[in-house]
Amino acid sequence: MKKPFIIGITGGSGSGKTSIIKLLREKFSEDELCLISQDNYYLDRTQQLQDANGVTNFDLPTCLNEKQFLQDIRTLMEGKSIEFTEYTFNNDLRESRVIKIDSAPIIVVEGLFVFYYEEMRKLMDLKVYVDASDIVKLKRRIQRDQVERNYPIDDVLYRYEYHVTPAYQNYILPFKRQADIIINNEYKFDNAVQMIEGFIRSKINE
Q1: Which residues contact 34 (CB under 8 A, 6 or more apart)?
Q2: What pLDDT, on the 0 to 100 scale, is given for residue 186?
Q3: Structural domain boundaries of the chain?
Q4: pLDDT at residue number 1
Q5: CA-CA distance, 3 to 62, in Å (whole number)?
Q6: Sheet containing 33-37: which strands, arranged edge to edge?
């Protein structure tokens, strides 16, 4: 079996990674492309670190089960399927579901810290960095955390200032220069997605 082509996609919280990935997902069948996201590899809340004010910090590389994430990527690379329980970010309004991912010729690995983890970064054949201004990222973060994760606005703003921003500066932005493609996602990303779609199709057809 030919080795799958691995695409890593990262960027700051609220940069719009999810929107871009969702659009890419819609353009390819599951036989052509599979997606694995770090969002389903958070450790249990009891294992997370707290800041000086006792607020749990979910914006650190240590918040994730890096070992399991990496193992599942390698399992997909071997042509096998993986299965896990969805992480719902403590949102009582959402019910966790079992997710099964089958391997495909193109594997997209997505998350805040996928470039930070050296072993994971070395597996990637193409690295994509999604960029946006701080004000746009904050607006998107507020919308996402209030609607999807049921967080109060004060909590969202506190985490953005004391957790999200330092994490971006320390663990995400330094790897921007290692990206093969940088997408400016300030307003729209249609042209960038079309370019990546064309590249992926050329790889599938090889």
Answers
A1: 76, 101, 102, 103, 104, 106, 107, 108
A2: 82
A3: 5-205
A4: 62
A5: 29
A6: 33-37, 106-110, 5-11, 126-131, 181-184
The whole-number pLDDT of residue 187 equals 77
The pLDDT tens digits for 124-168 are: 999 999 998 889 898 888 887 777 767 788 888 998 999 999 999
Instruction: Note the pLDDT of residue 12.
Output: 93
Instruction: Give domain 5-205's CATH architecture.
Output: 3-Layer(aba) Sandwich (3.40)
3-state SS, residue 61? helix
Q: Strands 106-110 and 5-11, how do they pair?
A: parallel
Count CA atoms within 13 Å of residue 69 on its CB side: 28
Residue matched to tokens 């054949």: 125
Distances in whole angstroms, Cα of residue 103 to Cα of each of 3, 127, 191: 11, 19, 27
The strand pairing partners of 128, in sequence order, are 9, 181
- Token pair recorded at residue 46: 């009891």
> What does the block give as tokens for 198?
């064309």
- Residues 173, 179, 184, CA angle at the centre, nearest 5°? 75
Low-confidence ranges of the chain (pLDDT < 50): 92-93
Q: What is the model's pLDDT at position 95?
A: 65
Altogether, the residues listed in the chain come to a count of 206
* Pairing label, strands 98-101, 33-37: unpaired
CA atoms of 158 and 50, how far apart (whole Å): 13
